[in-house]
Description:
Layout: H1 3-10, H2 14-21, H3 28-41, H4 47-54, E1 59-64, H5 70-85, E2 89-94, H6 99-111, E3 117-120, H7 126-134, E4 139-142, E5 151-154, H8 156-168, E6 174-179, H9 184-200, E7 209-213, H10 217-230, E8 236-239, H11 242-254, E9 264-266, E10 283-286, H12 288-304, E11 314-317, E12 319-322
Parallel strand pairs: 1-2, 1-3, 3-4, 4-5, 5-11, 6-7, 6-8, 8-9
Antiparallel strand pairs: 10-12
Helix pairs in contact: 1-2, 1-3, 5-12, 6-7, 8-9, 10-11
Amino acid sequence: MTIKEVASQAGVSTAAVSRYFNGGSLSEAKREQIRKVVEENSYTPNTLAKTMRTGMSGHVGVIVPRIHSDSMSQIMSGIADGLKENDYKFILGCTDNEKEKEIQFIKSMQRSGMDGIILMGTVMTPYLKDTIASCEIPIVVTGQSFSGVSSVYHDDVHSMKDIALIMLKKKRNVAYIGVDEEDAAVGQARRRGVEKAFSEMGLDPGKLIRMVSDYTIESGYEQAEKLLREHPETDGIICATDTIAHGVMKAVKAAGKRIPEDISVTGVGNSWADTITEPQLTTVKLYFEECGRVAVNILMKMINSKDKDIPVSNMKLGYQIIERGSV
């Protein structure tokens, strides 16, 4: 039995049958008609036959550096919605921030017949650059802007500059807790944004007090403890991420300081936890779900293009400053 025969017996279009199997939008009446025919005939769609017929598997690979991240979950939500609209499914690979695993996933996903790959938040190494260049299926990167690779990324420099200016207009001794600068976006670009704010306020960016955290609350807490111990005059702490900021807020309170009266704190991300802290966190809203959706749109155009020399597409998303009670 074929999809065409299922459609004929159910009195619907083949597109409706395809949407039924891929979880697409359908009226309850049509869904019930198709379900009845499928169950009566014990029909299962032959994915292998479809792949042989069209040359497409209907699957893409998604590679993430970590799973336990609010931003990653939002991007994944956008990717999942975008793929569903295109009748696609995805296979997830988590690298645990191990660069070698990233290479392994790209190669294995290509061998496994994925139609394309979405690669999240990576550090561009020469080996990764060569692997992407030699990959025979389309790849889209999210969260970073790399030369010669299609990508969707955030305006990390200007968003960070704007939130730093809010801090600098109210506080005199402001420090910055960033991340490892192997990360061109969160590490380098956000630090440059803070430095631009310093320059705009007539301050010497070379005198910016900087600490380096990883992406956890625990590390944010530890770096804030060290900062307050070494620089007790600090009255403002700009953080590269919301997660770091939550650790900083804990450390500030543990030191007997008030937020924002004694020390102000800002983050980046607008995560769900920002509104349940006391006070609520002033932050930058980045459009993570849209990032996932746009990445899918770019990838689908690349997959469906008949031209092998597809132009590189780079999309920079906007941002919004969310002012709450921590400054």
